[in-house]
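INFO batch 0412 | record 1 of 1 | parsing
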Amino acid sequence: MRGNLYILLQVIVLASGKTTIHLGGLFVMSGEHLFWAGSVYPGALLALEDINNRDDILPDYYLEMVANDTKGDAGRAIHSLIEMALTPPTKIMLIGGAQGEESIALAETSKWWNMIQVIPATATPVLSNRQRFPLSFRTRMSLLMFTEVRLAILRHFEWQRVGIIYTNDQSILTTVRTLTQALLEANVTLVASEQFSSTVAPSYQMAKLKESGARIIIALAFTYIDVRLLFCEAYKLDMIGPKYVYIAQGHSDYLYWMEEDPRVTCSAEEVTTALQGLLMIGDMMYRPDGKATISGMVSEVVCPTCTREVTSHNTFARRAMPSAYPSIYSSRVAHGKPSSTLLLL
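INFO prediction complete | emitting tokens
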């Protein structure tokens, strides 16, 4: 029956007396998205190992994961999902994906098998729709939750006039609509709102922002090449220095603006100059207060292990690991506790 949630579970009893339950995992293991999502798979494996080695978490069960590489591509992800769903053993839960369109496609499809999906690395607001995606949960916060952060910054500095520039990605468009309404309700004047195509220099749009007189500019860019293109144009138009403030989202431990790219007609030093005074906001991936999480572990204990396990060349990739670890732990919550606990994810 479509209206009821049910799982046909194929189990294997090990010689140890433990029952094996299988998870399906769809991760970025290669390709262009590896630089930021490459730590999700190692993080999931680490959590799997920790749970299986502990006697206080699902003591009568052994977790095993069948994993495939999607390269962050929605088509490859759907192909792997269908293959997993039709091939024994039965997977009681899906862990994945990473890239936004990929995760949405998986959420749209996996629900027809009544398969619970836990998404470890996607922040797109689209997945917050519980009616559309009733069986999909995630361990990373939605981009929409940063709306109040931006408003708090505006209130703190008493800024009353802002401009917005953003890329035409689905996730960003949803964020812009929510932010625009929030600005209206907060009596903040939106003097200009400009959209540009991803990976194309926003020359015209930045010129329009300058013409509008916007000095406080909220930048919503989907990719890091978009960020470099945007601030390259800011440099060319002299929209930099103490008269301008940009509020953008991201992390500064990975110096992505220093990378040369033929599509960006500014040097790394020029882009860096344009970034001076940038206000950057981002999600906190580790709990900083030293308190134990639901797993009974603290960030200071898990973090050194993350660093050792992840072989990525930059610290930015390791940021995805803390959201991958609890995605596997949620299998314990789903199997060993009431479903209402899973909603807390």
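INFO post-check: The CA atoms of residues 23 and 92 lie 6 Å apart.
INFO record closed
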